[in-house]
Design goal:
Elements: H1 11-24, E1 33-36, E2 43-48, E3 51-56, H2 70-83, H3 98-110, E4 115-119, H4 122-136, E5 141-145, H5 150-159, E6 162-166, H6 171-179, E7 187-192, H7 204-213, E8 217-221, H8 236-240, E9 248-252, E10 262-266, H9 268-277, H10 279-282, H11 289-304, H12 307-325
Parallel strand pairs: 5-6, 5-7, 7-8, 8-9
Antiparallel strand pairs: 1-2, 2-3, 4-10, 9-10
Length: 329
């Protein structure tokens, strides 16, 4: 819209008001223009108009630098030459590329689950899985941690299922809410293993206990745990030896694994239900094979190598000690 309309609803005025509101509240976002360079992680070039300078990025979610790893890049170069750029369609029609099938098999093995389903992002994985399950389970009730990611909240809202939000990591509050619901109704407890904003860990074992006690499905978001925890990079639940007690495990490919995409894992039957009923999976072009091959290379490397995890955690401990030494929490 290049100009305001003469009559009727004034769209530009509405849009300007919304942007002005963000400015007035100090919440308007200006993106930093960054250029990553292979071999220089975590240093990037920051572009500001005609000028550019090198800066260290402290906020990247490519936690282990796998986006620059030679095995990942080599696999992606080979896949690009072999398969081309895109997948060629949705999974239902022409986009069920064998590279994606191999990725799902790798993810299922990573988490010791029967099956996995790959998505275009972790956000889409959460929205699709939660909205689908809470919608198709008759009279379902969802219990959601108050600090859950926006994608989980959106998925729960989209299902239109009844929901209860429990205080962050508050097991007593969660159990009070569970007690109030008819034991015959299907229930989902949705929470995270590692909360990205606070860095808190979820009480995974205790929530598994409650899920089993009240016959609820346990849904855990491991986006910020996969690659970084567990004896083969399967996440925080794997670190605790609890993966077998979790019904649905969601994760991302763009954090610890350094590529892009998302996934869910679980029983073959549960994954088949999401595959068959999840509109966010059915009606979209699938991941490019080049991305799937890069993710497989990253997962396979981190299954065998703990060096990246150990270095990352050592750096975190050192930084915490330095901050504590100068009185910063």
């Amino acid at each position: 819209m290049t100009s305001e309309r003469r009559s009727g609803f004034q769209y530009n005025s509405c849009f300007n008001g919304l942007i002005d509101k963000l400015h007035n509240e100090g919440r308007y976002r200006i993106f930093a223009e960054l250029e990553r360079e292979v071999g220089k992680f975590p240093v990037v070039h920051l572009h500001d108009g005609e000028e550019s300078r090198e800066v260290v990025v402290w906020c990247s979610n490519d936690y282990l630098g796998m986006g620059h790893h030679e095995k990942v890049l080599g696999a992606m170069h080979d896949a690009l030459d072999a398969y081309g750029a895109g997948s060629g369609g949705t999974r239902n029609i022409a986009g069920n590329h064998n590279a994606i099938v191999a990725l799902e098999q790798e993810l299922a093995d990573l988490h010791d689950k029967e099956a996995a389903l790959a998505f275009t992002s972790g956000y889409v994985a959460n929205v699709t899985a939660l909205s689908t399950l809470a919608r198709i389970l008759p009279n379902c009730v969802v219990f959601s941690d108050s600090e859950n990611h926006a994608s989980m909240i959106q998925g729960i809202r989209g299902s239109k299922a009844e929901k209860y939000v429990f205080e962050h990591n508050d097991l007593a509050h969660l159990e009070r809410l569970l007690k109030e619901v008819d034991p015959e109704r299907p229930k989902i407890i949705a929470y995270e293993s590692v909360y990205s904003m606070s860095g808190d860990f979820g009480p995974v074992e205790a929530i598994c206990d409650l899920a089993e006690k009240y016959n609820a499905l346990s849904y855990i978001d491991e986006t910020h745990g996969v690659g970084l925890y567990g004896h083969k990079g399967g996440g925080y639940a794997q670190e605790l030896g609890l993966t077998d007690r979790i019904d649905i495990l969601q994760g991302g490919l763009g954090k610890g694994f350094g590529v892009v995409g998302g996934f869910v894992t679980g029983s073959a039957l549960l994954i088949d239900v999401i595959r068959s009923y999840g509109t966010g999976f059915i009606f979209t072009t699938s991941l490019p094979p080049v991305v799937a091959e890069g993710a497989v290379a990253s997962i396979q490397h981190l299954k065998q190598s703990g060096a990246e995890r150990e270095k990352h955690q050592a750096n975190a401990r050192e930084l915490k000690a330095m901050l504590s030494a100068v009185g910063l929490p």
